[in-house]
User: Fold EGF-like domain-containing protein from Salvia splendens.
Amino acid sequence: MLLQLCLLYVTIWLHSVSAQSSSIAKPGCLERCGTQPVPYPFGVGPGCSMERSFEINCNTSFNPPRAFLSILGGEIMGINPTNVRVNMPNLALSTYGQGARILTVVYGLSTTRYTFSDQNWLTAIGCDDMAAVTGLANRSFSGGCVSYCQSAGDSGGVASCPNDSNGFGLGTGCCRTPIPKGTTNLFVNLTDVHRNWRNNKLFSTSYAFVGEMVTSNFSYRLNDLNNATIFLSDNWSAKNTPPVVLDWKIGQQNCDEARRNLTTYACKANSECVNFDTNIVGYLCNCSKGYQGNPYLDPGCQDSDECADNPCDPNADCTNIPGSFICKCRKSYGGDGMKGGSGCTKLPPSTIINVSIDIDYTWASGKTEISSPSDTRPFISDIV
Ligand SMILES: *[C@@H]1O[C@H](CO)[C@@H](O)[C@H](O)[C@H]1NC(C)=O
Ligand SMILES: *[C@@H]1O[C@H](CO)[C@@H](O)[C@H](O)[C@H]1NC(C)=O
Ligand SMILES: *[C@@H]1O[C@H](CO)[C@@H](O)[C@H](O)[C@H]1NC(C)=O
Ligand SMILES: *[C@@H]1O[C@H](CO)[C@@H](O)[C@H](O)[C@H]1NC(C)=O
Ligand SMILES: *[C@@H]1O[C@H](CO)[C@@H](O)[C@H](O)[C@H]1NC(C)=O
Ligand SMILES: *[C@@H]1O[C@H](CO)[C@@H](O)[C@H](O)[C@H]1NC(C)=O
Ligand SMILES: *[C@@H]1O[C@H](CO)[C@@H](O)[C@H](O)[C@H]1NC(C)=O
Ligand SMILES: *[C@@H]1O[C@H](CO)[C@@H](O)[C@H](O)[C@H]1NC(C)=O
Ligand SMILES: *[C@@H]1O[C@H](CO)[C@@H](O)[C@H](O)[C@H]1NC(C)=O
Ligand SMILES: *[C@@H]1O[C@H](CO)[C@@H](O)[C@H](O)[C@H]1NC(C)=O
Assistant:
C-alpha cells in the first residue's frame, strides 16, 4: 500500500509538471527573446509565427537580446493575450509662424493584424494649441483637445497633464484625447489658437504624441516650449513618450465565418473563439474555463489542476476532473466542501454514524483504499 501511494504521488507530480512545461512556441522555435516570452501566434523569425504580422526580429546584438516587431520595427515591451505594447516614439511638432505640420503617426496598420487599442491617448503639450486627431477605425472619426495656460508663470512655470485616472480633466499646458478601439490610421494636427484668447503667443512650439496613458506624473518646464532643441534632440520622445498599445487579432473574419473552414480556423481543442469586436472583423482564441495553455497550438488547451490552488475547505479533499474539480468533505464533516461556499462543518454524532456506514458501503463496493484520500495524507507526509 505504501508503494502504491508513492506511485500515485509521483504520477500526480509528473502530470502537473508536464502540464506546466508545455511549450508556448511552435516546435523548434524560440520560446523567448531575451527576457520577452514569445507565445505563438508570435514567433521569432520566418516560419515560427502564424503570419508576417506576428513575426519577431530578435536582435542578439543587444545583451540580453531585444524583440522587435518585424512588420513595424518597434521594440516590443510586452505581449498580452489581446495586445502588444510597442515602443514607437512619435512626436508631432508645430512651431508658431511656420504653420501646422501634420504627422502621420503610424503608416499602414490597415495591412497588418493590428489596430490601435483604446488604451492609447493623444497627448498634446503646449499653450494655446488645439490638437486634432482624425483617423480611420471601422469608419472615420475625429477628436481633439485644447491645451491652455493662463500665463507663462502658471503653476510656477511647470506644466502637468490632467491627472485624473481617465485622462480627461484640466492640465496646465497639456491635454489628452482618447483614441478609439480599432483605429488603423491616425493623423495628428496641431493648430495655434492663441488669438482666440490673447494677443501674444506665450510659447512658440507645441507637440503631440500618441501612446498609452501615463498614470505617473508627466510634467515639463513651460519655458522648454521656446527651445525646440530640448524636445527634438537628446532623444526626448524616445525617453518620454509611452509605448503604443496595439490590439492584435486573427484573420479577416468573425468567429461564425472562421469556424466554417477548419483548415484555417485558429482555435485548437478546449478553446473558445472570441470576436474581436461587433463592428470590426477578426477574432481571438481563449482557453475554455478550467483549461490552460496556448489555444493557438496543437494539442490545444490542457486541463488545469484547480486543486493546486486549494479551492476546498481544509477539512475536504480535492479531486481534479477535466475542466473542473470536486470538493468532498472528510469523514464526520458535512457541507459542500468549498472555500467560500458552505465549507465543511463537524456533524452531530448521530450523523457521523450514518456517514461511516456510507464509507463502509464504498469499501464493500470494491473501490480501492485510494478512493479515501483522507487516509493517505499522513502517509504522504511520512514519506516526504
Ligand atoms: C540589431 O540592432 C543593431 C543596433 O541597433 C542594428 O545595427 C542591427 O542592424 C540590428 N540587427 C538586426 C538583425 O535587426
Ligand atoms: C491632481 O492634481 C491636483 C493639483 O496638483 C491635485 O490637487 C489632485 O489631488 C491631483 N489628483 C490626483 C488624482 O492625483
Ligand atoms: C489640419 O489643420 C489645417 C488647418 O486648420 C487644415 O487645413 C487641415 O485640413 C487639417 N488636416 C487634417 C488632416 O485634419
Ligand atoms: C506628482 O507631482 C506632485 C507635484 O509635483 C507631487 O506632489 C506628487 O507626489 C507626484 N506624484 C507621484 C505619484 O509621483
Ligand atoms: C536649448 O536647449 C539646449 C539643450 O538643453 C541647450 O543646449 C540650448 O542652450 C538651449 N537654447 C536656448 C536658446 O536656450
Ligand atoms: C539618441 O539615440 C541615438 C540612436 O537612436 C543614439 O545614437 C544617441 O546616442 C542617443 N543620444 C542620447 C543623448 O542618448
Ligand atoms: C479553407 O481555406 C483553405 C486555405 O485558405 C482553402 O484552400 C480552402 O479552399 C478553404 N475551404 C473552404 C471549404 O472554403
Ligand atoms: C465595418 O463594419 C461593418 C458593419 O458593422 C462590417 O460589415 C465591415 O466588415 C467592417 N469592416 C471592417 C474592416 O472591419
Ligand atoms: C478569456 O477568458 C478569461 C477567463 O475566462 C477572461 O477573463 C478573458 O477576458 C477572456 N479573454 C478574451 C479575449 O475574451
Ligand atoms: C441516520 O440513520 C438513521 C437510521 O438509519 C435515521 O433515522 C436518521 O434520520 C439518519 N440521520 C441523518 C442525519 O440522515
Observations:
- The pocket of 2-acetamido-2-deoxy-beta-D-glucopyranose (ligand 7) is lined by residues 261, 263-264 (CB under 6 Å).
- Confidence is low (pLDDT under 50) at residues 1-21, 356-384.
- The chain is about 15% helix and 30% strand.
